[in-house]
């Protein structure tokens, strides 16, 4: 027939312990042989090199995290370098995330103070000093006291931010639960802010709720918690508000400076890592593939070596022997350093049978 392969043979390899990894690596670079599975009845989790494959998968996970950061910012032993780099990057990323969250909280607080100030002033001008919020004399079922008793109760405020889509439902819930004994004022923030929990950019609304008595205040607090509102302390007067705003401006400026330095440092680390990251990806993939091949071999307890069976072209047997000898070089060097006797042959090839394989 026209379409015939090279003359093939089934060869058996004996790989001494300590050099099997390098020998398989050399064979893999040549791409001359196809390995047979000598452990077909053994599950994947019970094979000899399972722990090494798990280590490779852990390094792959670290590299995926590293490459993701490299694309986000930049568009000794490999495992030790990767683990050390992951710890450093993870710590810097966590610190950056914490700083960004603090910055967002301070920004929200600043918007809240500026907007609620207009609520207080507009309400005092509209109502006047003689305004009575609860003038009725009847006993109320919610608070258990009369309107005149409520006038002696302490006026409280709860202020914060809520997502724009939740405002209508939030207002209805306040009215139903508190029987109308609260005053709600709100205004939309001009700037789009990221959500503290999800990180999504959305429109937020600043609100100010005034109420009489601790019992009503507790109900309002629970409603705010149900709607995941971001609550911030409300100043007692304009002087306190001005002091808090000045403090917030200073802290926001300091946080921005720290964030810029953190991002510069993270960018430098990633740029340095980018020089080796893709080389590491290739090395880890090769390492994992080698251990998968080693799991196809059987272990000879008597001779303490691995036995492999491969299909190889007869014309490439010399190259196969050369690859095995090249793979044994590192083992020989190690034995020479330790002044131990080593064998000149690392692998022996025995022909089991010869055949012609058709495609």
TrEMBL record:
GO biological process terms, semicolon-separated: vacuolar acidification
Residues that span the membrane, as ranges: none
Any GO CC annotation of this UniProt entry: vacuolar proton-transporting V-type ATPase complex
Keyword vocabulary terms for this entry: Coiled coil, Hydrogen ion transport, Ion transport, Membrane, Transmembrane, Transmembrane helix, Transport
Keyword Transcription regulation annotated: no
GO molecular function: ATPase binding; proton-transporting ATPase activity, rotational mechanism
Coiled coil start-end: 75-109
The organism's place on the tree of life at top rank: Eukaryota
InterPro entries from the UniProt entry: V-ATPase_116kDa_su (IPR002490)
Annotated compartments: Membrane
Membrane topology: Multi-pass membrane protein
Functional note: Essential component of the vacuolar proton pump (V-ATPase), a multimeric enzyme that catalyzes the translocation of protons across the membranes. Required for assembly and activity of the V-ATPase.
PANTHER family hit by this protein: V-TYPE PROTON ATPASE SUBUNIT A, VACUOLAR PROTON ATPASES
Protein's UniProt name: V-type proton ATPase subunit a
């Amino acid at each position: 027939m026209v379409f015939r392969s090279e003359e093939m043979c089934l060869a058996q390899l004996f790989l001494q312990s300590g050099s099997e990894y390098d020998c398989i690596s050399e064979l893999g670079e040549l791409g001359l042989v196809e390995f047979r599975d000598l452990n077909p009845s053994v599950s994947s989790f019970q094979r000899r090199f399972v722990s090494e494959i798990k280590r490779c998968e852990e390094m792959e996970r670290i590299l995926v995290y590293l490459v993701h950061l490299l694309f986000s910012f930049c568009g000794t032993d490999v495992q030790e370098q990767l683990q050390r780099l992951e710890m450093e990057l993870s710590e810097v990323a966590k610190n950056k995330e914490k700083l960004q969250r603090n910055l967002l909280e301070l920004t929200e607080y600043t918007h809240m103070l500026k907007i609620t100030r207009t609520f207080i002033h507009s309400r005092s001008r509209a109502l006047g000093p003689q305004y009575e919020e609860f003038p009725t004399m009847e006993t109320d079922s919610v608070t258990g006291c009369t309107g005149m008793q409520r006038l002696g109760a302490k006026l409280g405020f709860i202020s914060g931010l809520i997502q724009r889509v939740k405002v209508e439902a939030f207002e209805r819930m306040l009215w139903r639960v508190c029987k109308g004994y609260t005053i709600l004022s709100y205004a939309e923030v001009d700037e789009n802010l990221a959500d503290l929990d999800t990180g999504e950019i959305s429109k937020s609304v600043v609100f100010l709720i005034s109420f009489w008595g601790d019992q009503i205040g507790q109900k309002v607090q629970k409603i705010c918690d149900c709607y995941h509102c971001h609550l911030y302390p409300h100043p007692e007067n304009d002087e306190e508000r001005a002091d808090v705003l000045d403090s917030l401006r200073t802290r926001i400026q300091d946080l921005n400076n720290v964030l810029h330095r953190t991002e510069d440092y993270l960018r430098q680390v990633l740029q340095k890592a980018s020089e080796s990251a893709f080389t590491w990806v290739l090395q880890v993939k090769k390492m994992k593939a080698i251990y998968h091949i080693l799991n196809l071999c059987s272990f000879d307890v008597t001779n303490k070596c691995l036995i492999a069976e491969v299909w190889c072209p007869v014309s490439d047997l010399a190259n196969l022997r050369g690859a095995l000898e090249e793979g044994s070089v590192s083992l020989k060097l190690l034995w020479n350093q330790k002044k131990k006797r080593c064998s000149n042959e690392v692998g022996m090839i025995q022909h089991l049978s010869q055949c012609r394989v058709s495609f």
